């Protein structure tokens, strides 16, 4: 029995991109909408991101000169990438929603205007992949334009964990969250409750009619006449659930998802009979271990190589991060030649040119990197091999083999520098997913392929690479309207899910930059449209 009870049309659980944008869509239609957030800040993992949205055929892509027919080309690409006929209706729903959602958002000044930025599709060997990609981004916004609400927006991962400074502009995911929060609250139909954690879904006559939550130690019941949207992220920081479902790695501290994502919404959905899918999957990324022992998303490297515990190179270090992450994971599942932990071995030339630790080359690397052992340094490769515990002969051979590719310009093992995605790193260090790392440092070519630079200038350095993720990928099974399904395929009335609380539309693959957040927004939008059409 709850101590208090309040009634709304729509209750949204979670305040990431999918949650807040969906709440705005509902409130803008005159639906009294509540967002509950278990922490004291809004944004979730979206705040850590670049907020890319993989939305083929949307207005920003058209403004960038991309042909209107791209939606059908993208559909063919998505079909080949996912390669699962059972998910085709979800793909079609996603593709139909993205462009419509952007059109609706851009009618509100808070969302003007999204911009296409060229980020190549990740599976470039498939027909329909393009070097310009289909990803759109929210524009930055000044803290002064957001006012007091800016203090509610979660910081980026580097700021939150490591006190990196941020300027007076909100970028990427933080910009999207600030814009969505402002638009939502200004509808006059939106209410935000922070420090309010979901405990249970309320069921009456087989239908979800609200949620029970805890705020300041008191239980409160929030009624939801039209429906409840679960948009509370995944279960990446729940070690017990990771172990139960075989979501490697079992160490939840290695995830780059926000710490509060422990699967509350997933567990609540399971308790009312929801089906699940893809529970052993995640949005995998390689993670460079920081001085505190935790890894942070490493999108790729421009100098040096990655070797496994056998001292052997095992991957194109610039491979799109989800693919590189899966390579590390699959290596971890073998008994020999494990790819986790892996080691990033590079020389002083790369260290000086690109910097290290998420800072530009002009910023000295903090002493804590060396003092903690997160970054090791040696005058010779033999000494470095001893420090990281790999066979010296194998490490020397791996570096020598890679150096031998420089003059010819062809990485005969893993073809680094040949794809459009790889070639983007000629001009940037890092990637917009972490704005602090996205600075321009053109590569001076040493041979025909600028992404092949020799590791031959002592001293040498090594950092540890672990398997990380930006969220789990498995979750509640839904239909194309984001309605949560039971095991028999029938929807649970009044219950919807989006983002990493739902099983991913894209299955086991990551088609292009902005698929996770794009899915969160698209299916949240479809959920609200379904609720808006329902009778109260």
For the biggest sheet, the summary is: 8 strands, mixed
**Overall pLDDT score:** 93
Beta-strand segment tally: 23
Q: Radius of gyration in whole Å, from Cα?
A: 23 Å
Helix content: 25-40%
Low-confidence stretches: 431-437
Distance between the termini: 24 Å
Describe the structure.
Helices cover 29% and strands 21% of the residues. The protein has 16 helices and 23 strands. Strands 1, 2, 8, 9, 10, 11, 22 and 23 form an eight-stranded mixed sheet that branches. Strands 13, 14, 15, 16, 17 and 20 form a six-stranded antiparallel sheet that branches. Strands 3-5-4 form a three-stranded antiparallel sheet. Strand 9 and strand 10 (207-215) form a beta hairpin. Helix 1 (17-28) runs parallel beside helix 7 (172-185), helix 1 packs parallel to helix 16 and helix 3 crosses helix 4 (88-105). The longest helix is centred in the C-terminal third of the chain and has 19 residues, at 515-533. The protein is globular, with a radius of gyration of 23 Å.
């Amino acid at each position: 029995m709850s101590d208090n009870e309040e009634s709304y049309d729509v209750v949204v659980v979670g305040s990431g991109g999918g949650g807040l944008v969906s709440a705005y869509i509902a409130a803008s239609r005159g639906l009294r909408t509540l967002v509950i957030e278990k922490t004291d800040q809004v944004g979730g993992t979206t705040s850590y991101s670049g907020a890319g949205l993989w939305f083929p055929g949307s207005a920003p892509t058209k403004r960038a000169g991309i042909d209107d027919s791209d939606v059908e080309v993208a559909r063919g690409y998505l079909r080949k990438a996912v390669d699962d006929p059972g998910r085709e209706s979800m793909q079609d729903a996603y593709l139909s929603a993205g462009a419509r959602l952007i059109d609706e958002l851009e009618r509100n000044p808070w969302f003007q205007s999204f911009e296409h930025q060229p980020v190549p599709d990740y599976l470039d060997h498939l027909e329909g992949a393009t070097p310009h990609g289909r990803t759109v981004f929210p524009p930055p916004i000044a803290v002064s334009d957001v006012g007091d609400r800016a203090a509610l927006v979660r910081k980026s991962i580097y700021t939150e964990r490591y006190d990196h400074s941020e300027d007076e502009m909100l970028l990427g995911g933080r910009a999207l969250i600030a814009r969505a929060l402002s638009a939502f609250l200004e509808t006059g139909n939106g209410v935000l409750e922070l420090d309010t954690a979901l405990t249970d879904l309320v069921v009456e006559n087989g239908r979800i009619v609200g949620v029970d939550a805890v705020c300041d130690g008191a239980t409160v019941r929030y009624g939801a006449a039209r429906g409840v949207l679960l948009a509370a992220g995944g279960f990446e920081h729940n070690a017990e659930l990771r172990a139960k479902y075989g979501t490697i790695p079992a160490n939840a501290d290695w995830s780059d998802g926000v710490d509060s994502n422990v699967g509350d919404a997933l567990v609540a959905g399971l308790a009312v009979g929801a089906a699940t899918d893809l529970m052993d999957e995640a949005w995998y990324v390689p993670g460079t271990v920081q001085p505190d022992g935790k890894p942070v998303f490493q999108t790729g490297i421009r100098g040096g190589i990655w070797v496994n515990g056998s001292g052997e190179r095992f991957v194109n270090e610039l491979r799109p991060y989800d693919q590189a992450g899966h390579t590390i994971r699959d290596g971890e599942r073998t008994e020999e030649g494990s790819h986790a932990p892996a080691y990033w071995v590079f020389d002083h030339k790369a260290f000086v040119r690109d910097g290290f630790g998420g800072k530009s080359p002009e910023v000295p690397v903090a002493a804590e990197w060396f003092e903690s052992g997160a970054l090791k340094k040696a005058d010779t490769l033999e000494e470095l091999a001893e420090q990281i515990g790999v066979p010296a002969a194998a490490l020397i051979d791996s570096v020598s083999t890679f150096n031998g590719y420089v003059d010819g310009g062809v990485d005969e093992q893993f073809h680094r520098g040949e794809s459009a995605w790889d070639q983007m790193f000629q001009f940037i260090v890092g990637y917009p997913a972490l704005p602090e790392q996205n600075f321009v440092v053109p590569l001076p070519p040493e041979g025909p392929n600028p992404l092949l630079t020799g590791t031959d200038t002592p001293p040498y350095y090594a950092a540890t690479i672990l398997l990380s993720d930006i969220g789990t990928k498995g979750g509640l099974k839904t239909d194309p309207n984001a309605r949560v399904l039971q095991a028999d395929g029938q929807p649970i009335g009044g219950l919807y899910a989006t983002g990493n609380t739902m099983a991913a539309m894209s299955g086991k693959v990551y088609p292009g930059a902005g698929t996770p957040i794009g899915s969160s927004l698209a299916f949240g939008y479809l959920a609200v449209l379904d609720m808006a059409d329902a009778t109260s």
